[in-house]
Amino acid sequence: MNRTVLNISLLVFIILTWGYSWVLMKIGLQSFGPFTFAAWRCGVAGMVMLPFLFIRDIAWPKRNKFPDYIMIGLFQTTLMFGLMLYGMRFVTAGKTAVLLYTMPIWTSLILHFYLKEKLNSLKWIGVLLGSLGILSILGWDTLVNQDLKIFMGEVLIISGAISWAVSNVLIKKRMDREDPYIVNAFQLLIGTIGLILLAIPFEGTLDGIWTIKSIFIILFTGVVASSVNFTIWFYLLKKLDMNTATFSSMLVPVFGLFLDWMILGNSLDPGVIIGSVLIILGIFLVSKRQNPSSL
After folding, report:
1. SS3 state at 208
2. Counting beta carbons within 10 angstroms of the beta carbon of residue 194, is it exposed (0 to 12), middle (13 to 18) or buried (19 or more)?
3. Rounded Cα gap, residues 69 and 52, in angstroms
4. Distance (Å, rounded) from C-alpha 141 to C-alpha 139?
5. Distance between CA 268 and CA 273 in Å, rounded?
6. Measured in whole angstroms, how far is the alpha carbon of residue 44 from the centre of its chain?
7. Residues 58-67: contacts with CB under 8 Å, at least 24 apart
């Protein structure tokens, strides 16, 4: 197998497994509270990463960088997974995937307003399309479903996407010299501590309904969707063009929507379909590399 075929195969693998993980997370919430589920998933993922770090003999972070690791663990794992899974209790798996993947839009806005990395006109169009897509999804639920729990769930998921965006900015600005595998492992483990601190007071214990299915869900979302896939993702970012990788990742919420409909039987109302298309177009535009000659 030549290198190109291998890279494409790996890309297809992570898109499909990431898409499938959204369905599994929705099913997993039947057996665990959202914070408990997040703690088990992220804890397993972080622990699986440790032997990989030892095998590769990667140097551990310096003590003065630990505050940055704590902040990233808080935003990337504790808040992102905690808010997303809590909101997912009231929202379908496919819609959750689409709303969480608005992250690039929020990242661009943070970079523009707080770090003065100005958006060009094309990226502003992307932000506008993404915002219209969010309004399409939220507006349809408010006008048609009239369910406050669904609306609040969507707000929590969007808050998780913003938290993910904050983490990305922190990584970009403060962790550029840190090994990405170390960053992933440590932020997962640190973030898991935060999730445990949420799970115990709000959900009582870290226990759940343990069955073969629920164990499979924890292992798949923790080992495959988190540890294995992010390791592959970091590898592909070095091997593929950034635009190709970023655009391909936009297929994840598309597969999430499709599998949500096919496996869980959730219908796709017009607001979700229109909103999803607008959000994906918006993400594509804001993810394009800045052209120095553009406005």
Report:
1. coil
2. buried
3. 19
4. 5
5. 6
6. 17
7. 58/179, 58/181, 58/182, 59/179, 59/182, 60/182, 61/178, 61/182, 61/186, 65/175, 65/178
Q: ∠ CA 52-190-29 to the nearest 5 degrees?
A: 95
Region 197-205: mean pLDDT is 92
Question: Which residue's structure tokens are 């073969």?
Answer: 212
The CA R_g of the chain, rounded to the nearest whole Å, is: 19
Greatest alpha-carbon pair distance for the chain in Å reads 57
Percent of the chain's residues with pLDDT above 70: 91
Among 13, 19, 8, which Cα is nearest to 252's? 19
Give the H/E segment covering residue 59: none
CA distance linking residue 228 with residue 14, whole number of Å: 9
- Picking from 36, 18, 17, 23, the residue whose alpha carbon sits closest to that of residue 204 is 36
Give yes or no for residue 256 having a pLDDT over 60. yes
Q: Which pair of structure tokens corresponds to residue 147?
A: 């369910």
Structure tokens at 101: 């993947």
Structure tokens at 103: 């992250």
**Distance between CA atoms of residues 160 and 211, nearest Å:** 29
Rounded to an integer, what distance in angstroms lies between the CA atom of residue 284 and that of residue 249? 10
Residue 105, class by beta-carbon neighbours within 10 Å (0-12 exposed, 13-18 middle, 19+ buried)? buried
- Specify the range with the lowest mean pLDDT, choosing from 80-89, 165-174, 183-192: 165-174
